[in-house]
Structures are given as structure tokens and as C-alpha cells.
Design goal:
This protein is α/β, with parallel strands linked by helices. 36% of the residues lie in helices and 14% in strands. It has 2 domains: 116 residues, 3-Layer(aba) Sandwich (Rossmann fold), CATH 3.40.50.1260; 208 residues, Rossmann fold. The longest helix has 15 residues. It binds adenosine-5'-diphosphate and magnesium ion (MG).
Length: 348
Amino acid sequence: MNKLTVRDLAPEQLRGKRALVRVDFNVPLDAERHVTDDTRIRAAIPTLELLLDRGARVVLLSHLGRPKGKPESKYSLQPVAKRLAELLPSSKVAFVESTDSDEARAHASTEGVAKHLTPAVAGLLMEKEINYLHNALENPKRPFVAVLGGSKISGKIDVIEALLPKVDALLVGGAMACTFYKAMGLETGKSLVEADRVALAKSLLDKAGTRLILPHDATVAPSIEQAGAAHPVSKDAIPSDEAMLDIGPGTAESYARAIASAKTVLWNGPMGVFETPPLDRGTNAIARAMADATAKGATTIVGGGDSAAAVEQAGLAERMSHVSTGGGASLEFLEGKTLPGLAALTDR
Ligand code: ADP
Ligand code: MG
């Protein structure tokens, strides 16, 4: 990475100094305001321990939820501080109720804060994230296979366009496959199709050539509520009164084979409505194939909140090379956009 990271800060630079760390502790809470998933807190611990070991006094900045302009107790980070104290038993964790509205804190964003600091460095989590994504884009071991799914094609068009010239194959699943089907003139029944993106899907198909691969079969059902009635059909036999809710079993198998022969796999977006079994089969097949590929030495990267949740749900998160926590920012990185919070860091 061409930016300084916390590793570059020597103990003599840090001892007794305050280190301001922008963390993403926007975690889910239950009705009693207990942290229900501390993944994001745990993910920051290596960076915090490095700073503490080198003698820094660490000040953390995060947001929780979206309070509207003034403090709201339900968005207080107090429960997060409590969980952090449990995770850092040898450190004293103090929670600061409010910050003075002085200028330095007025821009407590990833970018604004970084502009006021010298040096401004990446934490270990950001370093790992950037290294994995950057290597996949610029220097992938081949074959390089991308798997894209999820509910909407609209949010991922820029990613498709950016990845197509770089990958050996781009496997499409999720509801976005249906917009491509529509563009091919196929019957899509009650499937989620973005009518205003059909023309765009058609032009993508025209210029993508054989690298863009669509499911050749589909798992359909009358509705998500009737998932029990799900059955496979060929892509040209989707009934007019049913919806495609997962890739079909044949497609799951051929995608798994493509993943098995890949050296780099990048996955964003579930293959179907994985929240409702048996519509999780396509998604689970991808997760399993990627876990097996990792074991055989491939680099496997999972991005996107729902995809990460699906991999977690399948119990396979530990078997991926990297599960991205960067959310929307990671997608923008894949699109080749400049990330302000990254650009603001001190260059090497
Ligand atoms: P990520 O968060 O990993 O980027 P998205 O947010 O783009 O993924 O998409 C996830 C959602 O897409 C899930 O809630 C899933 O139910 C939905 N989805 C996937 N395939 C279909 C489909 N064929 N029809 C309707 N919804 C789908
Ligand atoms: Mg999502």
C-alpha cells in the first residue's frame, strides 16, 4: 500500500502521544441495548493493541446509527464501550458522553479527521482490506473469477463494468440475473426485474462477450412465502406466475466448478433469497466452493453485508482468505473510484 499504516509508527513516535482512531463500531444492538454482534469491535482490536503496546493513549471515534443532528440516547456508544472494555481487559476504557462542538471534532468523518492529523495512517483492518482488494484488481493470480449477485443490478453496474476487463469469468446470480434475462427476451414471470435497467443490461451483454456468464437454470416459486414449493426450471421455462428466487442446481454446480479451478475468487451478492431456506442452496454452494478453493491455495474474498452474513450463517467465514468489512466503500474501491478517507492518509 502506498499509504502509511500504524505499522510504520515507531514506539518512540507513539509513546505518551494521543492516537485518534476512527473505528467503525456501528454495531447491532438488541432492545436492552446489548451488542448482539461484536465482529466490528473485535476487528479493530489488533490495531488498538498495537497502538497501546507502543505506548500511545488511544482515543476512539465512531458513530452508531443515524441520530438527527443532536444526541439521542438510543444511539449512544455506551454499550459499545462496555463490550470493548471486556475485549481489552488490561486497558482502562472510558466512555466520553459528549464531545465539545469544537472545530476539530466537527468533521468526525474518515476524511475530515485525517486532514487535521500528521501523520494520518491506515489501521491494520484497512490495510488488510486494501491489500486484498488491490491485489485482486491489479495483480490477481489467474484464473480470476468474480461472482456477483444480490437484489439489484443498478447498484452494481459500475462494479460489473470495472471487473469485466480484469476477470477471466464473471458469474452472475441473484435477482440481477433476471434483468439480464429480460434483456435477452426471456420470460421472467414475477421475478424482480429493474425495468429501467434492461437496456443497460443489453448493452453490457453485447460488449461482455463470453466472460459474462448467466445462470442456465433457475429455482422458482410462486413467492418467497411459498419457498417450500420451490422447483428448478431451465432459464427459458420460467413460469409467468412464478419468480426466480435462486440460481438453479445445475448452475450452482457449474459455478462451483469454475470456482474450483480459479486462483482468485471475488464474491459480492447472494445467489438467491438466502434468508429463506431452501432458497439458500445456490448461495451456500458458492460459499462451500470458495472455502474448498481457499484450502487448495486460492485467494478468496467476500464483500457485501448480506454476502458476509450468508458466509457467517454457513459457518464458513473462517475459511475465506478475507471477508470484507468495508461495505459500500469496498464496492466503490472495486469500481475504481477514489475513496476520500483513503486519499487523505499520508503517502509513503
Ligand atoms: P450484499 O449486501 O452482499 O452486497 P445485496 O444487498 O446486493 O448483497 O443483496 C442481498 C439481497 O438480495 C438479499 O436480501 C437477498 O434476499 C436478495 N436476493 C438475492 N437473489 C434474489 C432474487 N432472485 N430475488 C429477490 N431477492 C434476491
Ligand atoms: Mg446488502
